[in-house]
């Protein structure tokens, strides 16, 4: 049985307060984008323990610390699941702020739930996902969501880029999410993202921010350069996603932009 975990971008990201457990309360809108990994589980008779095989982009993870295996162990602590062979084809760049690892983990929970007809509800799966990472519960639902708390309180929102064109650019820079949060001074936003998102995309430039940009841009000027270039090329809105290093641009019409970003991973909406 196979599935195709996809990535996300953050439309705005306000880091509101620091919590006693070290995590941060935030406000963001998660939006699914179709850069995909492939995740397969194969049931092999007489297997004594799980097998994990990774191909594609090298993450340097092992059968012990890859999030898909952590997801497998977690769901197995609730249900009886036999040893399986897991194949993960990595195509979503990591350290990119687009939630690749979190998506793989959430999709593993959904895959096991279907394959073994466990009947767990989306809410139950999201509860398990929240133990694997702050971004994980969103990928259980995988539709545009306004998120609060550490990212686990989710509310569906209406937002679509149907008549627009989206491009994502990731330079050869890997940002650690933990380090990115460490250099943030949390603050209450002037206007809630839930309100901002209702404005026309043309107004977002003046209203919507990603709080990580202020600390990440001085450290990695290349990321800010990509954002400025997207605006120079005519983007209606451009922003870093999550804690970086990816930057996305939203355009009015499809234009050939790839050649402007040599040396970067570039994904364009079909
Ligand atoms: C930056 C975002 O991608 C925005 O969508 C997420 O907030 C990050 O979510 P994630 O990668 O799933 O994060 P986790 O793997 O749970 O946490 C990695 C580290 O980031 C910090 N962290 C994460 C999420 C959050 N709301 N507050 C935090 O302070 C913590 O130090 C944590 O140890
Ligand atoms: N299945 C996985 N795919 C990618 N990275 C993984 C996976 N499992 C564990 N990791 C580890 O997690 C780290 C970052 O993963 P991830 O792709 O979630 O980061 P990200 O793109 O910055 O996303 P996020 O927005 O969730 O922070 C990698 O350096 C890797 O060591």
From TrEMBL:
It is an enzyme of class 2 (transferase). The active site is at 8, 135. Keywords: ATP-binding, Isoprene biosynthesis, Kinase, Nucleotide-binding, Transferase. Residues 193-256 form the GHMP kinase C-terminal domain. One of its GO terms (biological process) is isopentenyl diphosphate biosynthetic process, methylerythritol 4-phosphate pathway. GO terms for molecular function: 4-(cytidine 5'-diphospho)-2-C-methyl-D-erythritol kinase activity; ATP binding. InterPro entries: GHMP_kinase_C_dom (IPR013750), GHMP_kinase_C_sf (IPR036554), GHMP_kinase_N_dom (IPR006204), IspE (IPR004424), Ribosomal_Su5_D2-typ_SF (IPR020568), Ribsml_uS5_D2-typ_fold_subgr (IPR014721). It comes from the Bacteria. It catalyses: 4-CDP-2-C-methyl-D-erythritol + ATP = 4-CDP-2-C-methyl-D-erythritol 2-phosphate + ADP + H(+). Signal peptide: none annotated. Its EC number is 2.7.1.148. Residues 66-142 form the GHMP kinase N-terminal domain. Catalyzes the phosphorylation of the position 2 hydroxy group of 4-diphosphocytidyl-2C-methyl-D-erythritol. Belongs to the GHMP kinase family. IspE subfamily. PANTHER family: 4-DIPHOSPHOCYTIDYL-2-C-METHYL-D-ERYTHRITOL KINASE, CHLOROPLASTIC (PTHR43527:SF2). This is 4-diphosphocytidyl-2-C-methyl-D-erythritol kinase. It comes from Dysgonomonas macrotermitis.
């Amino acid at each position: 049985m196979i599935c195709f975990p996809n990535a996300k971008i953050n439309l705005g990201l306000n880091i509101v307060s620091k919590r006693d457990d070290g995590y941060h309360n935030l406000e963001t809108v998660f939006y699914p984008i179709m850069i995909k990994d492939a995740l397969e589980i194969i049931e092999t008779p007489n297997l004594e323990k799980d097998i994990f095989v990774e191909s594609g982009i090298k993450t340097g993870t092992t059968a012990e610390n890859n999030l898909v295996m952590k997801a497998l162990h977690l769901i197995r602590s609730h249900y009886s699941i036999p040893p399986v062979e897991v194949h993960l084809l990595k195509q979503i760049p990591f350290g990119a702020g687009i939630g690749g690892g979190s998506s793989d983990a959430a999709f593993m929970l959904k895959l096991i739930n279907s394959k073994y007809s466990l009947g767990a509800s989306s809410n139950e799966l999201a509860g398990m996902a929240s133990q694997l990472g702050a971004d994980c519960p969103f990928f259980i639902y995988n539709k545009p969501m306004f998120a609060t708390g550490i990212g686990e309180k989710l509310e569906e929102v209406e937002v679509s880029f149907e008549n627009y064109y989206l491009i994502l650019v990731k330079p050869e820079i890997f940002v650690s999410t933990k380090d990115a949060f460490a250099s943030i001074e949390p603050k209450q936003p002037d206007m809630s993202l839930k309100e901002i998102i209702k404005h026309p995309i043309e107004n977002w430039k003046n209203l919507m921010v990603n709080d990580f940009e202020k600390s990440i841009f001085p450290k990695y000027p290349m990321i800010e350069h990509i954002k400025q270039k997207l605006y120079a090329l005519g983007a209606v809105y451009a922003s870093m996603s999550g804690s970086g290093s990816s930057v996305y641009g939203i355009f009015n019409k499809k234009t050939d932009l790839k050649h402007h970003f040599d040396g970067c991973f570039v994904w364009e909406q079909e």
